Amino acid sequence: MNMRRATIRDVAETAGVGVATVSRVLSGGSASPETRERVLTVAAQLDYRPSALGRNLRQRRSGGIGLLLPDITDTFYGRVADGVLACARSAGEPVIVGTTGDDPEREAELIGMLMEQGVDRLVAIPSGDGESWAPTLRAGLTTVFAHRTSAGCGDIPAVLADDRAGVRTAVDYLTGLGHRRIAYLGGPGQAQRLAVFREAMGPLVDEELIVVARGSRDSAYAAAAGLFQHRPDLTAVLAGGNLLGEAAVLAARELDLRLPRDMSLIMFDDVPWAELCSPSLTVIAQPAQDIGYRAAELVLRGGGRRPRGVLLPTELIVRGSCAARGTSRSPR
Amino acid sequence: MNMRRATIRDVAETAGVGVATVSRVLSGGSASPETRERVLTVAAQLDYRPSALGRNLRQRRSGGIGLLLPDITDTFYGRVADGVLACARSAGEPVIVGTTGDDPEREAELIGMLMEQGVDRLVAIPSGDGESWAPTLRAGLTTVFAHRTSAGCGDIPAVLADDRAGVRTAVDYLTGLGHRRIAYLGGPGQAQRLAVFREAMGPLVDEELIVVARGSRDSAYAAAAGLFQHRPDLTAVLAGGNLLGEAAVLAARELDLRLPRDMSLIMFDDVPWAELCSPSLTVIAQPAQDIGYRAAELVLRGGGRRPRGVLLPTELIVRGSCAARGTSRSPR
DNA sequence: CTGAAAGCGCTAACAG
DNA sequence: CTGTTAGCGCTTTCAG
Questions:
Q1: Is A118's CB within 8 Å of B78's CB?
Q2: Residues in domain HTH lacI-type (chains A, B) (predicted)?
Q3: Phi-psi region of B7 (alpha: psi -120 to 50; beta: other; left: phi over 0)
């Protein structure tokens, strides 16, 4: 009952041709029309499916692409992953997924595992820096970064949301509402976004209003709560990700700060619950899915010409969490 | 600069032993202490990493496990995936992820792809029914279902949340608050949960208060809105998933139904935003991560003894979206 | 305890 | 256009 799968040899023998011919026909090589048809027929009859195992060994590389992201539980990354999967599926390529927890060491381990598997194409939301990535690249992995780059990895193509424009828009919107004391609540691996914030704020920037949390929910909450408690003079905050935004909402509620009366909030990344929140959250939407899809496209195209990557637009979606700076925030 | 990776042969020659010996040493076989040490040293020096490609072909199976889920964008499934990844990582196994979109056909395609890759262990949140799964199982894939089973696949081990208890608890809670007209808003592939709802409701059940949506957000919203509009006499609703819950909140708001005054809501699955919502949502929490982890454990243990699967407890978390049935809902 | 040898299923020269 | 052949890197008998 448990028949072994048909191999290329079975097909060859049944069709009365050599294995090479079968291989050629199935990979679109040259063959006489009649031979081709015969092979195809036999292959279909035998329900032949070429084994990736044999091919992989022969070519010294498993097809397929690796996907490394910090946390698959975060809907933003989930959407990026979805984009990658969509693209890979349309190319018939398997995707091996690993989560790094924003830990460069774990990232390196996963890369090692992928290389062992023969994976030589990688889409990553990087955690490590240039130094940590150097060995990987030297090893010849075709890599495309998604969502963010890594310091000292300027030569790796990256598909990014236009953080510069996003941050600038947010800051302009907030200052336009009269805010001056604007805080930034950031996460790991977003040095660039933070830099742009400083730049956009210009003389208004106050380093004490800048806090960066580690990746976890707890850390984000602690950062937000600490910020709000220690700097009661802030009137607006820009949260650099949906986890940070969530933490900000929670912390504000806990400290009895009302949005948007006591504090305005803009969050990076539009998530479904931004609309369910009350007040609903004003956000900078990022095309997460597209980021993943485009990154996968790039990596599948291979180390072709394309030297640099892609910049995708962001969009300010105004909802209810921002207000003009009214009379100063009530003392605490 | 681009040195080829060391192969087992390189190690053997450098250490002055046969390849078989190297293989044995590295896979914990028998070897004299000195030989073992020499091989290990050389392997380390050469930074030798055994190629999974070779091994896979030899063993006619790629290690690694396949993971099939409806939608990686849904945080519930994301958490399940996280659990699977966590377990697989601790076992050093790669995970190939595919999303089915709750489409049996697509599911079948993905399974085909996995088999081509030599994957022979699968964790799945199934979309298809027994008939659709039969070929897969016959082909010898070690399969474990997570989160739900498939009709006619009773013999496949499954790791499930205790839906029966969950639904019962929810219904009891609601009836305890005086509710009689309780609606059920379900999604695809949850026949069992629905069955339990009918059972738990007993004589109170009204088929017109039962609606099942397809997998998408739009479909969920349409279902919720339709239900609320056509059945203004309902006083409580049980949403069979976070997407459904989200849709219910949105639809209620749109129709100007206030929670919990006009309608009580219990949602399956506790998600971070349930607490951000206002009112915060009363939910049946499910151990999504555990479900994934345990499923991966089972599939890694292989087709061992364990005939049936595992049932994990759910928990009713009371927050603010339910109220005692007061005076009848205001007419519309 | 160890080495030699036989493939796993496939592709890519290389001849015919 | 087609068949033969030589491996890809590894594990696993089978002798020694």
A1: no
A2: 6-59
A3: beta
Taking CB atoms and an 8 Å limit, are A53 and B62 in contact across chains?
yes
Chain centre to alpha carbon of residue B67: 9
pLDDT score of A232 more than 50: yes
Contact A92 B98 (CB under 8 A): no
C1' of C5 to CA of B144 (Å) = 39
pLDDT at B303 over 80: no
Let me know if A35 is exposed, middle or buried by CB neighbors in 10 A (0-12, 13-18, 19+).
Answer: middle
Look at residue A28 in the predicted model and tell me its pLDDT: 80
* Of residues A56, A38, A31, A42, the one with CA closest to residue A8: A42
Residues 6+ apart with CB under 8 A from A59: none
User: Residue B315 phi/psi, 5° resolution?
Assistant: -145, 130
Strand boundaries in chain B, DSSP class E: 65-69, 95-99, 121-124, 142-146, 158-161, 182-186, 210-212, 236-239, 264-268, 282-285, 310-312, 315-317
DSSP state of B159: E
Phi, psi at B225, each rounded to 5°: -60, -45
Q: Strand C: which positions are within 7 A of a protein CB?
A: 1-13
Residue A154, exposed/middle/buried by CB under 10 A (0-12, 13-18, 19+)? exposed
- Residue B116's CB is within 10 A of a number of other CB atoms, namely 19
The rounded distance, in Å, linking the Cα atoms of B79 and B63 is 23
Task: Name the pLDDT band for A1 (thresholds 50, 70, 90).
Answer: very low
What 3-state DSSP class applies to B230? Answer: helix
A164 touches strand D (CB under 7 A): no
pLDDT tens for B29-40 read: 778 888 999 999
Looking at beta carbons, which residues of chain A come within 8 Å of B110? 89
Residue A281, pLDDT above cutoff 60: yes
Q: Does the CB of A116 fall within 7 Å of any strand D atom?
A: no
Domains, chain B: 8-48 (no CATH), 65-161+288-312 (3.40.50.2300), 163-287+316-328 (3.40.50.2300)
Q: Which of B60, B73, B89 sits opposite A82 (nearest CB)?
A: B73
Helix axes A8-15, A33-45, angle to 10 degrees: 120
Protein-to-nucleotide distance from the CA of A136 to the C1' of C5, whole angstroms? 36
Tokens linked to A265: 């909030």
Measured in degrees and rounded to the nearest 5, phi and psi for residue B150 equal -125, 140
The rounded distance, in Å, linking the Cα atoms of A251 and B326 is 33
